[in-house]
Write a structure and sequence with these properties.
With about 280 residues, the protein is an all-alpha fold. The chain folds into 2 domains: about 1-55, no CATH class; about 70-270, no CATH class. It has 11 helices and no strands. Helix 2 (about 10-25) runs antiparallel to helix 3 and helix 5 packs antiparallel against helix 6. It is found in: Cell membrane. Its main location: membrane. It holds the Pfam family MatE.
Length: about 280
Amino acid sequence: MSELFRNTFKYFPVFIGSILLTFHGNPECLIDFFIYGFFFLAIITLIIILIKLVKIEGEHLDFCNEVNQVKIIKSSYSMGLSSLIFFLLLSVDVFLLKRHFGDAVVAYYSLAIKLMTFMSMVIISFGINASTKIAELYELKKVEELTVVIKRSNRLIFIINFIGGVILILFSETILKIFGADYILADSALKLLVLSQIIASFFGVIPMYMNMTNKQIVFKRIMFLALLINIILNIILIPKYEMLGAAISFSITNIFWILLCVFYVFIKDKIKMGIF
């Protein structure tokens, strides 16, 4: 349900607004549909959460004294910062492309990013499904079962993203032309972004593992280091290579923080995070 709201339902207000404004109204009002759509979805999700909390029986809340508000805030704070940093990794290159090359190039590159994020959605969706099991097995110190869950999840993520990635790479020009002839200029950047996500899929559940095994603070620091590297690479490469430079910066940074997390987990927990 979480992923449906985050990756599907949140686009409904913009989609409905686009249809309505195409036939009647000011196209600039699409921004209002985007903003108020988030507010509307926030109200709906709040109601759903409150209904589900009411249905929880009293005996299921015996742990509330141990898991208090302060502990929740401390855990969520690092997770929230990590998510914010990942958002910035997807934004710094757009700001610099806008500064150096204007709106058109930003539009082309943003489409490539959006197509690539379909693969990210697969990683997040399957990773979240496995996250509670990862936390449970980690706390119970069932290393063998934990390894099986990790490898099984990573394999499924990799298979789906590999198939989807190959399709995107083989038919990239055709897909980009759907949005306009000029969008083909983002072809090389799209292929590189997709390739980096295929590589990332080898270790698909690594972000969830870091967050669900009391490694939120380390994960936050790794992501912050990745952000600094990303900014430096973008400053150097974007003026020279335009969209391809942005794609190179993101791909290097993306693979860097993933491999660093994988190395840390292997040193700390002696667990291999790959698909084999």
